[in-house]
Amino acid sequence: MRRLALILSLTLPLACAAQTRPVEGPGIWRLIALNGAQPSGPITLVIEEGRISGEAPCNRYSGTLAVEGDSFLPGPVAATKRACDRLEEEAAYFAALSAVTTREQHGITLVLTGPDGVRLDFTMPMN
Protein backbone atom coordinates (compact mmCIF):
# COMPACT_ATOMS: atom_id res chain seq x y z
CA MET A 1 0.00 0.00 0.00
CA ARG A 2 2.85 2.39 0.82
CA ARG A 3 4.40 1.60 -2.52
CA LEU A 4 1.17 2.52 -4.36
CA ALA A 5 0.89 5.77 -2.39
CA LEU A 6 4.49 6.63 -3.27
CA ILE A 7 3.93 5.93 -6.99
CA LEU A 8 0.74 8.02 -7.04
CA SER A 9 2.41 10.89 -5.18
CA LEU A 10 5.18 10.96 -7.80
CA THR A 11 3.10 10.53 -10.96
CA LEU A 12 -0.13 12.40 -10.19
CA PRO A 13 1.45 15.90 -10.28
CA LEU A 14 2.99 15.11 -13.68
CA ALA A 15 -0.34 13.95 -15.10
CA CYS A 16 -2.12 17.04 -13.82
CA ALA A 17 0.54 19.39 -15.17
CA ALA A 18 0.04 18.09 -18.72
CA GLN A 19 -3.69 18.80 -18.80
CA THR A 20 -5.07 21.83 -20.60
CA ARG A 21 -6.44 24.41 -18.19
CA PRO A 22 -8.69 27.41 -18.73
CA VAL A 23 -6.95 30.56 -19.86
CA GLU A 24 -5.77 32.12 -16.64
CA GLY A 25 -5.76 35.81 -16.23
CA PRO A 26 -5.93 38.64 -16.02
CA GLY A 27 -2.64 39.12 -17.71
CA ILE A 28 -0.88 40.44 -20.74
CA TRP A 29 0.23 37.72 -23.13
CA ARG A 30 3.23 38.52 -25.34
CA LEU A 31 3.41 36.99 -28.83
CA ILE A 32 6.62 35.00 -29.29
CA ALA A 33 5.83 33.30 -32.63
CA LEU A 34 3.34 33.77 -35.46
CA ASN A 35 3.20 30.63 -37.61
CA GLY A 36 6.72 29.82 -36.44
CA ALA A 37 8.24 33.27 -37.09
CA GLN A 38 9.28 35.66 -34.34
CA PRO A 39 7.57 39.05 -34.46
CA SER A 40 9.85 41.99 -35.20
CA GLY A 41 8.52 43.86 -32.17
CA PRO A 42 6.08 43.58 -29.29
CA ILE A 43 2.55 42.28 -29.89
CA THR A 44 0.27 41.68 -26.91
CA LEU A 45 -3.03 39.96 -26.14
CA VAL A 46 -5.20 40.64 -23.09
CA ILE A 47 -7.94 38.08 -22.39
CA GLU A 48 -10.90 39.08 -20.28
CA GLU A 49 -14.28 37.44 -19.92
CA GLY A 50 -15.89 37.70 -23.35
CA ARG A 51 -13.27 40.15 -24.71
CA ILE A 52 -9.78 40.38 -26.14
CA SER A 53 -7.62 43.45 -26.59
CA GLY A 54 -3.99 44.37 -26.95
CA GLU A 55 -1.27 46.17 -28.83
CA ALA A 56 -0.55 45.07 -32.40
CA PRO A 57 2.56 46.28 -34.24
CA CYS A 58 0.97 49.64 -35.06
CA ASN A 59 -2.42 49.87 -33.40
CA ARG A 60 -4.40 49.03 -30.29
CA TYR A 61 -7.20 46.53 -30.90
CA SER A 62 -10.17 44.88 -29.21
CA GLY A 63 -12.87 42.37 -29.98
CA THR A 64 -15.23 39.79 -28.58
CA LEU A 65 -14.28 36.29 -27.47
CA ALA A 66 -16.14 33.02 -26.96
CA VAL A 67 -14.35 30.35 -24.91
CA GLU A 68 -15.77 26.93 -24.14
CA GLY A 69 -13.62 23.95 -23.28
CA ASP A 70 -10.60 24.12 -25.56
CA SER A 71 -12.35 26.31 -28.13
CA PHE A 72 -11.14 29.90 -28.48
CA LEU A 73 -13.20 31.93 -30.95
CA PRO A 74 -12.32 35.62 -31.31
CA GLY A 75 -14.92 37.80 -33.00
CA PRO A 76 -14.16 40.63 -35.41
CA VAL A 77 -11.28 42.86 -34.32
CA ALA A 78 -11.61 46.65 -34.20
CA ALA A 79 -8.37 48.62 -34.28
CA THR A 80 -7.16 52.20 -34.22
CA LYS A 81 -5.92 53.63 -37.54
CA ARG A 82 -2.28 54.57 -36.95
CA ALA A 83 0.17 53.98 -39.79
CA CYS A 84 3.64 52.53 -39.33
CA ASP A 85 6.20 50.44 -41.17
CA ARG A 86 4.86 47.18 -39.67
CA LEU A 87 1.32 47.25 -41.14
CA GLU A 88 1.92 44.01 -43.11
CA GLU A 89 2.94 42.20 -39.94
CA GLU A 90 -0.11 43.64 -38.17
CA ALA A 91 -2.42 42.42 -40.96
CA ALA A 92 -0.88 38.93 -40.72
CA TYR A 93 -1.41 38.93 -36.94
CA PHE A 94 -5.06 40.01 -37.23
CA ALA A 95 -5.70 37.40 -39.95
CA ALA A 96 -4.14 34.64 -37.82
CA LEU A 97 -5.98 35.77 -34.69
CA SER A 98 -9.28 35.76 -36.58
CA ALA A 99 -8.64 32.19 -37.80
CA VAL A 100 -7.95 30.75 -34.34
CA THR A 101 -10.33 28.05 -33.10
CA THR A 102 -8.55 26.23 -30.26
CA ARG A 103 -6.19 26.92 -27.39
CA GLU A 104 -3.79 25.11 -25.12
CA GLN A 105 -2.28 26.61 -22.00
CA HIS A 106 0.55 25.14 -19.98
CA GLY A 107 1.71 27.46 -17.23
CA ILE A 108 2.90 30.70 -18.80
CA THR A 109 2.63 29.38 -22.37
CA LEU A 110 -0.52 29.86 -24.47
CA VAL A 111 -0.82 28.35 -27.96
CA LEU A 112 -3.72 29.36 -30.21
CA THR A 113 -4.27 27.28 -33.34
CA GLY A 114 -6.61 27.20 -36.29
CA PRO A 115 -7.09 25.44 -39.62
CA ASP A 116 -4.40 25.41 -42.30
CA GLY A 117 -1.56 25.47 -39.76
CA VAL A 118 -2.40 28.82 -38.13
CA ARG A 119 -0.48 29.03 -34.85
CA LEU A 120 0.17 31.86 -32.40
CA ASP A 121 2.50 31.20 -29.46
CA PHE A 122 2.30 33.51 -26.48
CA THR A 123 4.02 33.77 -23.13
CA MET A 124 2.88 35.68 -20.08
CA PRO A 125 5.77 37.80 -18.87
CA MET A 126 6.56 37.66 -15.18
CA ASN A 127 5.42 40.90 -13.53
Can you tag this structure with a few keywords?
2 helices, 127 residues, eight-stranded antiparallel β-sheet, alpha+beta, disordered N terminus
Please describe what this structure looks like.
There is one protein chain. The chain is an alpha+beta fold. It has helices spanning 2-17, 87-99; strands at 28-34, 44-48, 51-55, 60-68, 71-79, 102-106, 109-113, 119-123. The protein has an eight-stranded antiparallel beta sheet with strand order 5-4-3-2-1-8-7-6, covered by helices on one side. The chain is globular and about 35 Å long. The N and C termini lie far apart (43 Å). The model is unreliable at 3-22 (pLDDT under 50).
Question: Layout of helices and strands, plus pairs?
Answer:
Blueprint: H1 2-17, E1 28-34, E2 44-48, E3 51-55, E4 60-68, E5 71-79, H2 87-99, E6 102-106, E7 109-113, E8 119-123
Antiparallel strand pairs: 1-2, 1-8, 2-3, 3-4, 4-5, 6-7, 7-8
What class do helices, strands and sheet pairing give? alpha+beta
Q: Whole-Å distance between the termini?
A: 43 Å
Query: Can you count the helices?
Result: 2
Assembly state:
single chain
Main beta sheet? 8 strands, antiparallel
Approximate shape:
globular
In what range is the share of β-strand residues? Answer: 35-45%
Radius of gyration: 17 Å
**DSSP strand tally:** 8
Helix content: 10-25%
Sketch the topology as an H/E string, one letter per element.
HEEEEEHEEE
Mean pLDDT: 83
Low-confidence stretches: 3-22
Strand order, sheet with most strands:
5-4-3-2-1-8-7-6
